[in-house]
Inverse folding.
């Protein structure tokens, strides 16, 4: 029997802060990846599945390539990116509109070492351009040695041109039966998605340096008889000074983090929750292999 469906893995890669997580969330219309303007928001490989007509897209959101920080955590994150690219069918290289940097160049050089994988350049945040007329010259000036299958300008935040992007990706996917059930959305657990939501609130509400030195670990998840889920989430930081920043004056920061996270988690789970968020100081966790494994970093 002839296969009429297409199915495959699509890696979404790029330097930090180009909107990879925003894109994957927009494509599947569900908050799967922590989204923030700060670097290092996405720290795990996240699979999100979109089944549309006769095509199943399996998107893999990856950490941004890290050159700024050199902890064991960053090495693990970069290794995750390298591993992802070994078993995908299509690469979406996401860049900021009209901002081709050295980091973008390095990523292009890297992905074009493998000529067997189809590649699309995704120019994101075109809604931020003050003069849209500079976009076409920018596209024409991209180094000719990078032979992308196509170049698609989009706005992930405004969900502009996403159907065009999906159409282009679909044409590059192999003929294959669906791997996942059509109703399947992600391979990540509710605990993981909950920790991502809390992490997002931390990244949005506190200073620039702290997010690089904290993570969220769900210590207890308890479903009680009245349908409420009790969730106890621990924010791990490296120093007492980081704990003070997270707490804020009279505990205002941690209260706001918990309050905003609770609203999004209830939408995710479609249930009422009791959320308790607290902080523990764990010196050296960024370079502690045992602790990184315990906190879910592969």
């Amino acid at each position: 029997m002839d296969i009429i469906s297409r199915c495959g893995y699509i890696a979404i890669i790029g330097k930090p802060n180009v909107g990879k997580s925003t894109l994957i969330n927009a494509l599947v219309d569900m908050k799967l990846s922590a989204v923030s303007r700060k670097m290092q928001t996405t720290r795990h490989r996240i699979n999100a599945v979109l089944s549309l007509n006769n095509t199943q897209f399996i998107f893999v959101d990856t950490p941004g390539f890290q050159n700024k920080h050199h902890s064991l955590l960053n090495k693990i994150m970069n290794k995750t990116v390298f591993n992802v690219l070994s078993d995908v069918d299509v690469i979406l290289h996401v860049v900021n509109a009209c901002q081709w940097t050295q980091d973008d160049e390095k990523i292009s050089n890297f992905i074009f070492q493998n000529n067997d994988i189809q590649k699309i350049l995704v120019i994101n945040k075109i809604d931020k351009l003050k003069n849209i007329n500079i976009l076409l010259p920018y596209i024409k000036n991209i180094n000719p040695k990078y032979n992308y299958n196509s170049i698609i300008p989009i706005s992930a935040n405004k969900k502009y041109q996403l159907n065009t992007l999906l159409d282009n990706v679909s044409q590059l996917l192999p003929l294959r039966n669906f791997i996942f059930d059509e109703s399947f959305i992600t391979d990540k657990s509710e605990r993981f998605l909950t920790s991502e939501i809390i992490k997002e609130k931390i990244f949005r509400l506190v200073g620039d340096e702290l997010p690089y030195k904290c993570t969220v670990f769900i210590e207890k998840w308890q479903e009680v008889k009245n349908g409420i889920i009790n969730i106890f989430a621990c924010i791990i930081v490296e120093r007492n000074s980081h704990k003070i920043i997270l707490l804020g004056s009279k505990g205002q920061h941690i209260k706001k983090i918990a309050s905003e996270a609770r609203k999004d988690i209830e939408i995710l789970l479609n249930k009422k929750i009791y959320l308790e968020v607290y902080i523990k100081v764990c010196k050296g966790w960024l370079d502690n292999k045992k602790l990184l494994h315990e906190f879910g970093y592969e």
